[in-house]
Design brief:
alpha/beta, 463 residues
Length: 463
């Protein structure tokens, strides 16, 4: 009998080689499919994309249940937001591609005319996160292929089931082989191989700021086009004239929806001193009514967090806050988590509200990405703008006031890519989406995505 010793270094190298081989094969398939797909008319591409949307919609319940099992969100949330938005992403970009125009100018004194043309870039590398898996994957695939690109997409290794399910519908919808290629694997291996591939000239990434920094460094030698949608530390600013009933209901949702695992969730709430005590009591009472339970329970407001590691990370933020002198008013360590016996041991956490933190504290500066929000009083408009802008992130903000003049003043000065007033998460996909500072580079939306996934060329003709 012979004994073989497995060298971990050799095993790792073999794994990396296998993943690189898969990426190379996917990129080659996309590159080979590009000439034919890009030469199709926008109308032809639009028709196929709409068929894909129809097939996903017909299987909405199946997709929603799979998304819930894979990610931990409630089936209700997936069925009402994730999957319908995935369908809409395809339909929206299938429609918008039909309505873009190019520019033309004349220089009569030189007998010249100038015009622009837009052409697809080529093979697009798309990397999407685990919090809204199909929603954010389709938000990238839809504009990329609508513009005539082919894609190699890597969903998160933690939530890849619905991406695999979508793959089964591509052929049925008439998407030619090689146009959409899904690769599975971790970010450091599959993601890195995709980012560094010389035949992938454009990268769209949604995820953490730290990961994006690595992507920028790794892709820099290739001068790739980049779109980066990153983290947030989003403030809600609540002035004393706000409609408190609507404000509290909405802010509870903006703080704890999808277990707080949305980059647009509210994690800092600034409340004007005159209404601070009233708001605090009513907000905590409302947060306590949010039911944490089995994701399949239609009455549950929150399901489970994505993993044990992430649950530990979020809980550690609460521990840090306590160490810094904060007070937890409800949730983690204060209230008892009551969930069915079959869910015991799952990665569940109660909506947690913290007060008594300084602006420099960890929980006020870092993205927690869980069901935790911090409430802080303020006195003046000037003061709260400084506090809201006092973090490295700049994705979104909400402002609650009936003063129209104040809305315009505050919105203009907030260093965020989006500002909602007296609402949250209402989106028009025609308009730009993206953040400032460490929250990203570039914008996504009808025109912005079209500009990103195409190259512009100026043609001059002398006559």
């Amino acid at each position: 009998m012979r004994t073989f010793t497995i060298d971990e270094h050799d095993l790792l190298n073999s794994l990396k080689s296998a993943i690189k081989t898969n990426i190379d094969a996917a990129v080659k398939a996309a590159k080979d499919a590009f000439p034919a797909w890009s030469s199709r008319s926008p109308q032809e591409r639009s028709t196929i994309i709409c068929k894909l949307a129809d097939f996903i919609e017909r299987n909405l319940d199946e997709f929603a249940k799979a998304e819930s099992r894979d990610q931990g969100k409630t089936v209700t949330f997936a069925a009402s937001l994730d999957i319908p938005r995935s369908v809409y992403n395809f339909r929206f970009f299938a429609s918008s591609i039909l309505h873009h125009t190019t520019d033309c100018t004349q220089m009569d004194h030189l007998n010249c005319m100038h015009y622009t043309v837009r052409t697809p870039v080529g093979v697009a590398g798309l990397i999407s996160p685990w919090n809204l898996p199909l929603y954010l994957l389709t938000w990238k695939i839809a504009p990329a292929i609508a513009c005539g690109n082919t894609v190699v997409a890597k969903p998160s290794e933690m939530t890849s089931v619905t991406a695999w399910m979508m793959c089964k519908l591509l052929k049925e919808a008439g998407v030619p082989p090689g146009v959409v290629n899904i690769v599975f694997g971790t970010g450091p291996r599959a993601g890195d191989a995709l980012v560094c591939h010389p035949d992938v000239p454009i990268i769209s990434f949604t995820g953490s700021t730290s990961t994006a920094q690595g992507i920028i460094e790794r892709s820099a030698p290739f001068c790739k086009k980049m779109s980066l949608e990153l983290g947030g530390k989003n403030p809600a600013i609540i002035f004393k004239d706000a409609d408190l009933e609507e404000c509290i209901n909405t802010t509870v949702k903006s703080s704890f929806s999808n277990q707080g695992e949305i980059c647009l969730c509210t994690s800092r709430i600034y409340v004007q001193t005159a209404i601070y005590d009233d708001f605090l009591q009513r907000f905590v009472d409302a947060a306590k009514t949010w039911k944490v339970g089995s994701p399949s329970d239609p009455s549950a407001c929150m399901g489970a967090l994505i993993s044990e590691h992430h649950l530990t990370k979020v809980r550690n933020y609460v521990k840090k806050a306590l160490a810094e002198g904060a007070t937890v008013l409800c949730g983690e360590g204060v209230d008892t988590l009551d969930i069915p016996s079959e869910n015991q041991g799952g990665y569940f956490m109660l909506p947690t509200v913290i007060i008594g933190l300084s602006e420099e504290s960890t929980c006020m500066q870092e993205e927690i990405f869980g069901p935790v929000t911090c409430i802080v009083p303020f006195d003046t408009e000037e003061e709260v703008i400084d506090k809201a802008n006092g973090v490295k992130f700049g994705l979104a903000a909400t402002v609650w006031t009936k003063d129209v003049g104040r809305v315009h003043r505050v919105a203009k000065r907030l260093q965020t890519g989006l500002v909602w007033t007296n609402c949250w998460l209402i989106r028009d996909l025609n308009l730009p989406f993206g953040g400032m500072k460490a929250s990203g580079l570039g914008r996504e939306g009808a025109k912005d995505s079209y500009d990103f996934f195409t190259e512009v060329k100026t043609v001059t003709i002398k006559h």
